[in-house]
Amino acid sequence: MVLHIFTCSRMKTNITLKLDADLLREIRILAAEDGTSISALLAARLEEIVRQRKAYDQARSRALRRLEKGMDLHWSPPRSREELHER
Q1: In this structure, which long-range contacts are made by residues 39-45, counting pairs with CB atoms below 8 Å and at least 24 apart in sequence?
Q2: 8 A C-beta contact, residue 26 and residue 38
Q3: In this predicted model, what pLDDT tens digit does every residue of 20-75 receive, in sequence order?
Q4: Distance (Å) of CA 49 to CA 6, 31, 43
Q5: pTM of this prediction?
Q6: Considering the domain boundaries, does residue 46 fall inside one?
Q7: Residue 78 located in a structural domain
Q8: How many domains does the chain have?
């Protein structure tokens, strides 16, 4: 089966997939129920995967920057053992 996938440059690129016959039948049913083609169904899912990965990578980068920067907790160590154990 040849699928047409849209790329960011709006250029169509063909890909070929080898799928189990039973799986292909199920995919055809899913696409028909959604009123779309197998190509559009797969393209939408792949775009979703890419968006999720980009969002994860951005969140991870933000978290790592925060960790590197650290947080100011306005804490200073006690000056002496007695001060540490004051009640």
Answers
A1: 39/3, 39/4, 39/5, 42/3, 42/5, 43/3, 43/4, 43/5, 43/6
A2: no
A3: 999 999 999 999 999 999 999 999 999 999 999 999 999 999 999 999 998 888 88
A4: 15, 18, 10
A5: 0.63
A6: yes
A7: no
A8: 1
